[in-house]
Amino acid sequence: MKTPLLLMVISAGTYASAQTINLSDTLSSGDSQTYYVLDSNATAYADLTGADVTWDYGSIGGYGIGPNINSVIPGETSDFGEDFPDAVYAENFENSINTFFTNDPGASEVIVSGFVFQELSNDFIIKYDINPLISAKFPMTLGTTYDDAIQGTATLPLAGDVAIEGSATITVDGSGTLKVGSSSYTDILRVHTIEVSEGIILGSPAVITRESYVYYDIAADNMAIFIHGTVLAELGAGGDFGFTAVYSIDEITEIVGVEETATEKLDLTVYPNPANGNFTTISTVEGTESLTILNSLGQVVSTYNNPSTQVKVDVSELNTGVYFVQAIKGSATRTEKFIVK
């Protein structure tokens, strides 16, 4: 039975026995799972821990975009394989984070060499090339928790290579029922990981944080079924970069934020759509309080406060793909999808 190593996810293993994660069938080349992107503003249920709890995402919305594929490939075949020569595998999560890892049967551990994420065409390469991360110690069951030191090099936009060190805490913090849309899973273990590494950029502190809540269905022969993950790079004068993403194996057809209230009409259009030039125009009603553009992961690209009824948006620096514009006026919220070619 395969389970994923995501961190985002930073947890790997299989459920060989009830309520236990073991090393016997960790991820390897060829393993894959399909995930759908759901509302990135959904709660993480950070305080909902322990036995026999219910994590209720029954009313969560989706973004109406195609699925993302999470696949495991040989580390050396990854686009960033040269940065992680000690990693046997790369978990290639489409439009998300690539994690590089090795399974160590002798120590009953999974070793993470680092990860890569991209935001606004910038590559963030985090290498634990001095002290790698032990992302899982087996067996793991409800209540298992441990800390591990990490140290290495972060290659960051504008700053180049920066020495980093920090620690991670991994906890199997809950078991019970997970509800996603109309689906209900009653034999769930959740793994919570928080990883913080720090360095200095031009005399100012930089902090890179990854946190994830990963849900495994013990009753099923599959990888993680639900993931709530955040990555944030706080680079001082270099700015803050990162995103929160929610992934599920369940496709949710109810779109996030589309006319959430009927008491106030909120029209919203984007033209041309697809945007195949340098600009597109967003039209909304008078009195709109804000317009926010998000990418397909729910990351905020730009925000316009108290906009006019027509806003001309420069899309020339956006990557091709699916985006969303969300308008807010009073209690009304409306979201429309548009495409940049």
Number of helices: 0
Tell me the number of structural domains: 2
Largest sheet: 12 strands, antiparallel, barrel
- The total count of strands amounts to 24
Element order: H for helix, E for strand: EEEEEEEEEEEEEEEEEEEEEEEE
Spatially, the strands of the biggest sheet line up as 3-5-6-7-8-9-12-13-14-15-16-17
- Gyration radius over CA: 21 Å
Q: Which structural class fits the helix and strand makeup?
A: mainly beta
The global form is globular
Mean pLDDT: 85
Q: Which regions are unreliable across 5 or more consecutive residues at pLDDT < 50? A: 1-18, 259-263
Our estimate of the beta-strand percent is over 45%
Helix content: under 10%
How widely separated are the two ends? 40 Å
Describe the structure.
β15 (204-217) and β16 (226-234) form a beta hairpin. The protein is mostly beta strands and 341 residues long. The model is unreliable at 1-18 and 259-263 (pLDDT under 50). The strands form four sheets. A twelve-stranded antiparallel beta barrel has the order 3-5-6-7-8-9-12-13-14-15-16-17. It has a four-stranded antiparallel sheet with strand order 21-20-23-24, with no helix packed on it. Strands 1-2-11 form a three-stranded antiparallel sheet, with no helix packed on it. The chain folds into two domains: 14-248, no CATH class; 268-340, Immunoglobulin-like. It has no helices and 24 strands. The protein is globular, with a radius of gyration of 21 Å.
Features:
disordered N terminus, mainly beta, 2 domains, 341 residues, 4-stranded antiparallel sheet, 12-stranded antiparallel beta barrel, Immunoglobulin-like
